[in-house]
């Protein structure tokens, strides 16, 4: 993406007759100008259009498979979630392709990486960063505008897809949307935004650390591949090497080891996202950890209220918020101490 310098007229202090009125609010006006400029740059970027096209094609394909299989899923009384038709549009499949939320766990990080890997270094390489900061713009406003504009675009994209799915479901089936389903779907959109926000803040951090955009992009993609593909494999290999023979362990010890393995796996952001999305889109999920036979025997196979599902996924939400805020805080610290004139 070729960033353009913000026009001096948009960031000027204005005429002298109203200078005393505009002076205190000038950084806020500059913040809005930068957000509009970043949104326009993202929308005109070919890489963003390609990724949006991939997300749209994935959504349409998954929705087509779900609609084709919706009658079977809706009439399956053995499934506790069969009455939630709009949730089934996002989760049901005929095994020809994964559900939409599973595919989104692979595509959503690419959106965040593509919109942040050249946020700062491309401005510095093009010489526009010094011109931007020569205006009455705070550094933190510039960094926050880079982050906020990307989140706004991704949020509008997922909200539009959600409305498209709801409208398509109403036209095809005529079934009324329940309030619980709407809350769960919007919670799923929020979780997806948190997932994108982590990789966006990570890519912005790498764009500050590395001078070349290609290096930042490869580093971000490498971290994404590590957490998505290689990290679960490494955890399984290491745990298997040190885990005692399960035949000599009690049930409580086996559950403890399984809980320990899940805790290690949840260091990866994709595991946190998968846990949260699955719990919100499948109301019958009662636990994200191992359960004993006594607990399973006493459990009634029925959907949980929204409040209970939110309590289950609150640790996952807190983890993604903390990871995103941590990456952005490190990026903020490095950028505030960065020498931009060299």
Please tell me about this protein's structure.
With 342 residues, this protein is mainly α. It has one domain. 73% of the residues lie in helices and 0% in strands. The protein is built from 15 helices and no strands. The chain has helices at 8-11, 19-22, 26-43, 46-74, 85-91, 100-114, 121-125, 128-133, 139-173, 179-209, 213-242, 251-265, 269-281, 293-298, 306-336. Helix 3 packs across helix 9, helix 6 crosses helix 13 (269-281) and helix 9 runs antiparallel to helix 10 (179-209). The longest helix is centred in the middle third of the chain and has 35 residues, at 139-173. It is globular, with a radius of gyration of 23 Å. Mean pLDDT is 81; it is low at 1-24.
- Rounded mean pLDDT score: 81
Low-confidence stretches: 1-24
Q: C-alpha Rg, in Å?
A: 23 Å
Strand content: under 5%
Number of helices: 15
Compressed to H and E, one letter per element, the order equals HHHHHHHHHHHHHHH
**Helical proportion?**
over 70%
- Given the helix and strand composition, which structural class is it? mainly alpha
Report how far the terminal alpha carbons are from each other. Answer: 22 Å
The total count of strands amounts to 0
Taking the sheet with the most strands, its summary is: none
Broad shape: globular
Number of domains: 1
Sum up the structure in keywords.
mainly alpha, 342 residues, globular, disordered N terminus
Brief write-up:
This protein has 342 residues and is mainly alpha-helical. The chain has helices at 8-11, 19-22, 26-43, 46-74, 85-91, 100-114, 121-125, 128-133, 139-173, 179-209, 213-242, 251-265, 269-281, 293-298, 306-336.
């Amino acid at each position: 993406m070729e960033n353009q310098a913000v026009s001096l007229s948009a960031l000027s202090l204005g005429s002298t007759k109203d200078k005393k009125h505009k002076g205190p609010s000038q950084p806020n006006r500059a913040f809005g100008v930068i957000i509009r400029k970043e949104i326009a740059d993202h929308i005109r970027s070919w890489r963003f259009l390609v990724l949006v096209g991939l997300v749209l094609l994935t959504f349409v394909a998954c929705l087509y498979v779900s609609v084709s299989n919706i009658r079977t899923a809706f009439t399956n009384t053995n499934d506790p979630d069969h009455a939630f038709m709009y949730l089934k549009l996002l989760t049901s499949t005929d095994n020809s392709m994964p559900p939409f939320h599973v595919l989104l766990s692979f595509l959503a990080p690419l959106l965040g990486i593509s919109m942040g890997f050249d946020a700062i270094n491309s401005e510095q390489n093009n010489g526009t960063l010094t011109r931007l900061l020569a205006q009455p713009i705070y550094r933190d406003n510039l960094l926050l505008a880079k982050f906020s504009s990307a989140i706004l675009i991704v949020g509008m994209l997922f909200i539009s897809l959600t409305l498209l799915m709801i409208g398509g479901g109403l036209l095809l089936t005529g079934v009324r949307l329940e309030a619980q389903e709407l809350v769960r779907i919007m919670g799923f959109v929020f979780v997806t935004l948190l997932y994108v926000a982590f990789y966006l803040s990570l890519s912005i951090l790498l764009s500050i650390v590395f001078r070349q955009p290609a290096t930042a992009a490869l580093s971000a993609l490498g971290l994404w591949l590590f957490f998505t593909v290689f990290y679960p494999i490494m955890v399984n290999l290491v745990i298997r090497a040190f885990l005692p023979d399960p035949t000599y362990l009690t049930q409580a010890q086996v559950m403890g080891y399984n809980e320990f393995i899940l805790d290690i796996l949840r260091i990866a952001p994709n595991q946190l996202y998968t846990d949260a999305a699955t719990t919100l889109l499948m109301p019958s999920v009662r636990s994200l950890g191992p359960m004993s036979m006594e607990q399973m025997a006493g459990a009634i196979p029925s959907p949980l209220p929204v409040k209970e599902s939110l309590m289950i996924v609150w640790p996952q939400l807190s983890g993604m918020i903390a990871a995103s805020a941590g990456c952005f805080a490190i990026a903020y610290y490095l950028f505030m101490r960065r020498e931009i004139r060299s």
